[in-house]
Amino acid sequence: MLPGLYNSLMQAIMCFMRKIGATESTASFVSGALAGAISLSTKESKDRGIWGLFLLSRAIDCYYRSLINSGVIPKIKLDYAILFACLTVLPSYVFSIEPECTPPSLRKLYTNFTFENEAELTFRRCWVAKKNLSLTSRGLSAHDPSKFL
């Protein structure tokens, strides 16, 4: 329902912006921002984060395509493969260091993908506890990933 509502609102706002004489770039920005905000307000707060991330990634993709179409940056043959690799590195790194910092669904995916058992995850939790103890001994606050989730 959200993608349909988003697209319908965006097209309606885009038509209105064109009718009042706004430039194409202004109309695109305003219609996308308003449609995203309005359509996200219909979702429960626990679901807004993932949909906001989806809409943000679409906005970045559209901006990237417009830069290519206007000739500001050149088209690279493997651009999406490079982007995917870069965006996969961060959550993978976070999972390898502290799995508790990743969302439960992503943690389950990576655990199934890496075939880690509970003993290996427990070993990693011990390593994190040791790092937190060293932070505390230096007068720094211990890292608690649960307060950010």
Number of strands: 0
Shape: elongated
The number of helices is 6
Arithmetic mean pLDDT: 80
Task: Label the structural class.
Answer: mainly alpha
Topology as H/E string? HHHHHH
Task: Describe the protein.
With 149 residues, this protein is mainly α. The chain has two domains: 1-75, no CATH class; 79-149. It has helices spanning 2-19, 24-40, 45-69, 79-97, 104-114, 118-137. 7% of the residues are buried.
Short description:
The protein has 149 residues and is mainly alpha-helical. The longest helix has 25 residues, at 45-69. The chain contains six helices and no strands.
How do the strands and helices of this protein lay out in sequence?
Layout: H1 2-19, H2 24-40, H3 45-69, H4 79-97, H5 104-114, H6 118-137
Which terms would index this structure?
mainly alpha, 6 helices, 2 domains, 149 residues
